[in-house]
Amino acid sequence: MRRFRDRSGQAVVEMALVLPILVLFILGIVSYGLYINAVDTVQQAVRLGARSAALGDTLGCPGDSAETELGQGKPATVYGVVDDQLNNNKALSPTSGGTPLPVVSYAAVIGNQSNAQQNDILMTVAYAYHPVIPIPGLLPGTVEIAETYQMMVETPAPSNALTTTEPTAAPYDESAQWTNPAPPSSNVSYLVEPGGCQA
Asked: Which of 29, 37, 79, 126 has the maximum number of C-beta atoms within 10 A of its C-beta?
């Protein structure tokens, strides 16, 4: 009987030593899995945003919603498509305290300016992700997820929605401006919102 009690006490001690490590390991897996999901969402957002720009949609402003725009009979904007995709992931939010955050680092038309049908859209979306559980050495408290995508233009953007100078104000993300890879420096026009956006 004494041997049985000794062994059960040993099991309790072993469990007390192993359980915290096991729980941390599981939480680390969950946290890293959520991060991978966030990266996938940003990748999908930049693909859809580039597709929207390739179809000739204007850039729009942070906080736009393609679903709302289309429901009102208006054309979707690039920002509307990107923000809707980010909002579909409950772990992400392109707002801070109710204020829309700029997530597009740049959106540029590059290529053969004499033939708009041979141009490409090059676009980067950057999002400051805050892991549920930061992991020292792997997932710090804030991780910038930046994804770039390139797609051939199908419908040229309106001429009043393009500028040849680097935009340095809203709706572009100034905190991650010109995230790698940087946009080309020649033969490039940047998408802008014709009506402008509040900074």
From this structure: 79
- Of 144, 170, 192, nearest to 63 by C-alpha is 170
Please name which of 145, 143, 134, 140 lies closest in space to residue 41, comparing C-alpha atoms. Answer: 145
Token pair, residue 16, equals 């007390």
The whole-angstrom separation of Cα 4 and Cα 132 is 42
What residues have CB less than 8 Å from 2, skipping those under 6 apart? none
Only one residue has tokens 């940047």, namely 190
Domain assignments of the chain as residue spans, ordered by start: 2-191
Largest CA distance in the chain: 92
Alpha helix ranges (H) inside the chain: 2-54, 66-71, 78-87
Strand 188-191 and strand 104-111: pairing? antiparallel
**How confident is the model at residue 79, as a pLDDT?**
95
Nearest residue to 54 via CA among 117, 115, 146, 145:
117
Write the DSSP symbol of residue 139. B
- Cα separation, 137 vs 140, in Å, equals 7
pLDDT in tens, 160-176: 999 988 887 788 887 76
With tokens 């390739």, the residue in question is: 54
What is the C-alpha separation between 71 and 33, in angstroms, rounded? Answer: 34
Residue 194 contacts residue 161 (beta carbons within 8 Å): yes
Task: Output the six-digit token pair for 22.
Answer: 């096991």
Average pLDDT over residues 104-114: 82
